[in-house]
Every structure is written in structure tokens, then in C-alpha cells.
Amino acid sequence: MKVFYDEDSLLHNPPYEILDGHLVHYYESPSRPQTIKHELENAPSFTILPTNKALDVLKHARQVHTGDYLQYLETAYAAWVADGGDKTAVMPERFHIRSCFRAHRLQTRGAWGAIARAGFYCFDLSCPITADTHKSALASVRTALSAAEALSASSPPYSPKSGIFAHCRPPGHHAGTALCGGYCFLNNASIAARFLQDINPSTDTGTAQKLPIAILDIDYHHGNGTQEIFYEDPSVLYVSLHAQNDYPYYTGSKSETGAGAGLSYTYNHPLPRGTADDGYIAELQRALDEIRTSAPAYVLVSLGVDTYIDDPISDFKLTRAGYTRIGQAIAQLNRPTLFVMEGGYHIETIGKNVRAVLEGFELAT
Ligand code: OKP
Ligand code: ZN
């Protein structure tokens, strides 16, 4: 399997975050991608490829995020330091609490300083913006786009099973139209979905209709950002399995099913704490049935392995064997599939667990 990876992903390295009220070392650390890369390098079935530097990453990011949010991410650190902020990182102090939904519809006041902006474009305390954050966030998008480009070149829409891994870091599924949070700055999977639609205009009906894409989110946490981005869009089906009543807390209930033209194009599968392999895979089969019914041209998998039994910030009980079965089950969709890396914080096993999913998929018959 082809794996796309960009070394700039390692640059973002905030020293701390606030987790459960404690100042702790940053869980979403560069050792995560280093470990995954090391594991896949030493496995004969993977080829690690550099990203395509010729891609216009910002142009594609603009299909998902607002111009003012993208400009904020680019300028936030310098503006913060110029304002006398701590040189470690931009850290919000107070949140614009109505910004959790469609922040871009609200008016930004021109007079807002760096600290006010920090709380307007962010929803939690896990996203310090360092001098290198913007560079890594763009590298992560470039990784998703490079992988999407390779997938579409080798497998046209609706082709049978083939898979590529976008080894993205930082992750993306919590990032909304104009919000960072949950270690996420830019929504890599969403930007890749739009990219696949843009390079493959649907010819089915002869109209300018968008190609149908499904995003299956199997990270432990609900992908509130991805859900928000496509909530009213019937061309991108969003299906998520995640822990009920855990972070990010306010989204991911079964009753959220989309709105407007996007009604019934969002499906949430909240699962109880302690969910193990069998319970998880039974629910995954229901999620896969929803995806099958929608007959997508491409499947994107937001892949988190923080569902693992030993994950330090999560509460599911999946095992290595469970990850192989998950990969096998996804393969049964029989579609070109882009795996996009999201969470997973047990450093010792993260590489092996990612490998198990991908090999489960690749070797499935
Ligand atoms: C990102 B991804 C829980 C605090 C959680 C942020 C977690 C972000 C997870 N008490 N802090 O979905 O893996
Ligand atoms: Zn997660």
C-alpha cells in the first residue's frame, strides 16, 4: 500500500495542553508519526512516498475553511508575539462561546487583539499555536491531498477496492469551517473529499452535480468538525462511530442526522465506554450498510486508533485482532478508499495498530 507522509508534520510540537484540568505534556506529539512511520517502513507491504509540493494546498483548503480563519492560522503566532504574548504558543484565555457552530456567520470586530482572536477561532485548550503550527497543518493537508491525487489516478470513481494511507499529522476531524480544537487545525479528510469532487466532476447526470463521497470516522472521538462542514451537504455522507458522552461532548448524538438538503446524510453511532471488539464490529457493520446504500464513488476513513484498550485518554477496549477485522470489514465496501490518520495516543502500539487496519484491508478477499 502507498503511504504519503511529509516531514514538516513533525515541526508542530507544543510543550503542553490542558487536559481534564491539568497542565500535561502534549499527547498529540511528534513521536506519534515517528512511530507509525517506523512501523510501516519495516513492513514489506508499504511504500512511503513524499507529498506533492506542487499542489496548491491553500486553494483546496479554501473549499472547506473560511479565508479569515486561514489567514488567522497563518498570522496568529506573529500577532500574538507582537502583542507581548508568551513566545511558547498562542493559547486562548476566553472563548467566544457562540462560536461552536458556524462561527463564520458572526461578525469579527476589526479591533480584536491576538488573545481575543485566539478564543474566537478555537473551542478548547488542546490547540496551542506555535511558530511552526501553520507549517505542519499545511503539510498535513498536503499529505491528504497527495494521497487523494494518487488514489484517483490509480482508481477512477466507483472502481473496486484499492487503498492508500494519508499519514497526516496534526489530525483534522475536530477542525470546523472556522475553528480549531481537539489537536486539529485544518480538516484534512474534508479537504481531500472536496479535492476528489473537484478533480472528478460527476458525469452521471450530465449536470454539475458533485461526486458522492462517504467519510467513515472510526476515531474514538466524534468528528464534530467534519460533521459541521458537511451537515447540509448531500454529496458527502458522514458516518461516525465514537464514544457516547465523551469529548467533544456536545455533538455526535443519534438525533443529529443532517439538515436541509443534507438531511439523512449524517449518521452517528455513539457507543458506551468499555466497548470491545465484538460490540464495535457489530456497530461498524451497521455503519457500513449505511455507506453501501449511498453507493459512494470514494470512501474516506478518518482513522483513529485511540479506540485501543491501552489508549491513555480513551475508554474503549479494542485489540490488535480487532483492528485487522475492522480493515477487513471496510474492504467489503469494495471501493477506492483513502485512510486519513486522526488520533491514537498509546505510542508503543500506535504503529502496529494502524498497520493492522491497513493490512486487514489490503489482504482482505
Ligand atoms: C483528538 B482526536 C478529555 C480531554 C480531551 C482533547 C482530545 C482530542 C482528541 N477529557 N482532549 O479525536 O483523537
Ligand atoms: Zn480521537
UniProtKB/TrEMBL annotation:
Stored InterPro entries: HDACs, His_deacetylse_dom, His_deacetylse_dom_sf, Ureohydrolase_dom_sf
CDD domains the UniProt entry points to: HDAC_classII_APAH (cd10001)
UniProt keyword annotations, A-Z: Hydrolase, Metal-binding, Zinc
Molecular function terms, GO-annotated: histone deacetylase activity; hydrolase activity; metal ion binding
Pfam family, one: Hist_deacetyl
Cofactor(s), by name: Zn(2+)
Domain Histone deacetylase residues, every copy: 28-359
Single GO biological process annotation from the record: epigenetic regulation of gene expression
Assigned protein family: Belongs to the histone deacetylase family.
PANTHER family recorded: HISTONE DEACETYLASE 8, HISTONE DEACETYLASE HDAC1-RELATED
Designated name of the protein: Histone deacetylase domain-containing protein
Organism of origin: Dentipellis fragilis
